[in-house]
TrEMBL record:
Organism: uncultured Thiotrichaceae bacterium
Family: Belongs to the GSP J family.
InterPro entries, A to Z: N_methyl_site, Pilin-like, T2SS_protein-GspJ, T2SS_protein_J
Main location: membrane
Name of protein: Type II secretion system protein J
Amino acid sequence: MIISPHFSKALLPKLSGVKGFTLIELLIAMAIFAVLAVMAYSGLRTIIATSAGVEKQIVQLEELQRAMTMIEADLRQIVPRAVNTDLGQRKQAFEVGQDTSVLIEFTRGGYPNPAGVLRSSLQRIRYSLDDEGSLLRSSWQHVDYTTSVEPQSLVLLTGVESVEWRFLGNNSRWGTSWKTEESRNSEIPKAIEITLKHARFSEIRRLIPVSGY
């Protein structure tokens, strides 16, 4: 297609009248866009950080709820069943340790058996607290376990600063220690109070009646 010289000369005045952006205007527009982009990114980063913090709190709260539910289920089902060891000795049905390596140890009933394995419905349980602030639940499949058998350990809760106990005895008095005579090694508390101090949730206290008493 050939364009006539007369047509080009007629169109040239119209094109020369069209105005574009100057360099300064482009720089100003780019600066405004950059400021808006930074503000948008800052807001998005704050939202993401807040969302991550909320999710972490939800996970820790769910962990706390699961731990307290399991603790309560264990303590409610304590039964007066002493333990025979491989050394010919008997351990009390309910014992309180001297340090965090053994907080309490007891025999509980209601051990689930969905597979129908030929075993007792009783189970030996131990709670302990390690140096990293993890509350551990150790369990033996058989009540009369030997010292060579390692228990199955489960981390119930992290971030635990301390665990304190109180026990309601047969004399209807509360105490922080538990010791029975050799002839009464099957005695268990009427009720147990646990006070757990957590790094995030501060102090959690539960009073649990022992139904197996």
